């Protein structure tokens, strides 16, 4: 493991530019949610690619663009924060010479970061080969990229070149995640985030930030018609547990049905969701717990 490299790569780019598609292509299976509706990816998703050379932890961000509402602001914040915390930035753009206000905004942010920036011109399967050079030229004029890679995330053309270039810039480091954590961890994390979000929403200010969510089980039934999910809401005090469960279980029921509705939407599948509540007094102080619960800070 002497030459093993590892680190975080932030993927940025407008909604619909192909970030999720690219991650799925690199990982070789469908885990990120892709759709032709913008803003499918609400929360930060970690996708982990592991090979002999090293481990790349991708942070798929919802896209930096002008925020239209609170959720939008939150998404921009996440993207900007990721930008500061990673080893390499990968910026995906559409195959065009048109560099609009949104792109200029990203350029402005990139000028403030110190890590290497790789520009990916995606969807080159939709344009003529000779046009690609004009896109490269246009982007070269606005920023001094460390690398520029034209590719097709959908067709998997040239994505291996991108992986090689990312490794070129990653530091030597440990294997942060096991090989088998790759497949369902991100989806579990999203599901956990949804449940956490619905809990915080339902509980309003009664339990400020003192909860975490773990997914105990997430399994599709053999007939493919239903996903069984078992999750635990972890809180710090017995009194909190009572509030989360509510009178006759009403609060937990509300959280569960709101979460289930959204998860079914995301997975495009029926979901059978079972929720438990546990008290873990020490969870916020324990590094291990924080890691488990998906907190990077
Ligand atoms: P995201 O919002 O940036 O995560 O974008 P998605 O990955 O969800 O992709 C948005 C749409 O663009 C989907 O319909 C994808 O199939 C399509 N798409 C992504 N990459 C490519 C590509 O390389 N070529 C083509 N033709 N379409 C792509
Ligand atoms: K999308
Ligand atoms: Mg996406």
From TrEMBL:
Q: Give the GO biological process terms.
A: ribosomal small subunit assembly
Per UniProt, what is one Pfam family of this protein? MMR_HSR1
Taking the first listed entry, what is the main subcellular location of this protein, grouped into a coarse class?
Answer: cytoplasm
Localization of this protein = Cytoplasm; Cell membrane
Q: Which residues form the KH type-2 domain?
A: 195-281
* GO MF terms, alphabetically ordered: GTP binding; GTPase activity; ribosomal small subunit binding; small ribosomal subunit rRNA binding
Annotated spans, G2: 39-43
Q: Where is this region: G1?
A: 13-20
Query: What is the membrane topology listed in the Swiss-Prot or TrEMBL record?
Result: Peripheral membrane protein
Q: Which CDD domains match?
A: Era, KH-II_Era
Q: Which GO terms describe its cellular component?
A: cytosol; plasma membrane
- InterPro entries in the cross-refs: G_ERA_dom, GTP-bd, GTPase_Era-like, KH_dom-like_a/b, KH_dom_type_2, KH_sf_prok-type, P-loop_NTPase, Small_GTP-bd
- Chain residue ranges for the region called G4: 122-125
Region described as G3: 60-63
Alphabetically ordered keywords of this record: Cell membrane, Cytoplasm, GTP-binding, Membrane, Nucleotide-binding, Ribosome biogenesis, RNA-binding, rRNA-binding
Keyword NADP part of the UniProt annotation: no
Domain Era-type G: start-end pairs = 5-172
Where are the annotated segments for G5? 151-153
Protein residues bound to GTP:
13-20, 60-64, 122-125
The answer to keyword Metal-binding applying to this record is: no
Task: List the PROSITE patterns.
Answer: G_ERA (PS51713), KH_TYPE_2 (PS50823)
Function of the protein: An essential GTPase that binds both GDP and GTP, with rapid nucleotide exchange. Plays a role in 16S rRNA processing and 30S ribosomal subunit biogenesis and possibly also in cell cycle regulation and energy metabolism.
Family label: Belongs to the TRAFAC class TrmE-Era-EngA-EngB-Septin-like GTPase superfamily. Era GTPase family.
Fill in the subunit field for this protein. Monomer.
Name of the protein described by the UniProt record? GTPase Era
């Amino acid at each position: 493991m002497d030459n093993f490299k590892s680190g975080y790569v932030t993927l940025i780019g407008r909604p619909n530019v192909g970030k999720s598609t690219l991650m799925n292509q690199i990982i070789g299976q469908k885990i990120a949610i892709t759709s032709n509706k913008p803003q499918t990816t609400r929360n930060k998703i970690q996708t982990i690619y592991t090979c002999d050379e090293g481990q790349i932890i991708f942070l798929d961000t919802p896209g930096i663009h002008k925020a239209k509402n609170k959720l939008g602001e939150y998404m921009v914040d996440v993207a900007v924060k990721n930008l500061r915390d990673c080893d390499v930035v990968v910026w995906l753009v559409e195959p065009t010479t048109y560099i609009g206000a949104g792109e200029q905004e990203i350029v402005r942010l990139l000028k403030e970061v110190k890590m290497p920036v790789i520009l990916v011109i995606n969807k080159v399967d939709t344009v003529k080969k000779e046009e690609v050079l004009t896109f490269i030229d246009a982007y070269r004029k606005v920023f001094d990229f460390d690398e520029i890679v034209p590719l097709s995330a959908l067709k998997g053309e040239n994505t291996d070149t991108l992986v090689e270039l990312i490794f070129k810039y990653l530091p030597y480091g440990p294997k942060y995640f096991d090989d088998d954590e790759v497949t369902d961890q991100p989806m579990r994390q999203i599901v956990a985030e949804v449940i956490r979000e619905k809990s915080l929403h339902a509980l309003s200010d009664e339990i400020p930030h003192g909860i975490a969510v773990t997914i105990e089980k997430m399994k599709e039934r053999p007939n493919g018609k239903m996903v069984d999910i078992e999750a635990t809401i972890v809180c710090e005090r017995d009194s909190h547990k009572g509030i989360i469960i509510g009178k006759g279980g009403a609060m937990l029921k509300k959280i569960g049905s709101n979460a289930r509705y959204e998860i079914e939407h995301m997975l495009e599948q029926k979901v059978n969701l079972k929720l438990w509540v546990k008290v873990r007094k020490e969870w916020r102080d324990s590094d291990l717990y924080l890691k488990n619960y998906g907190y990077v800070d």
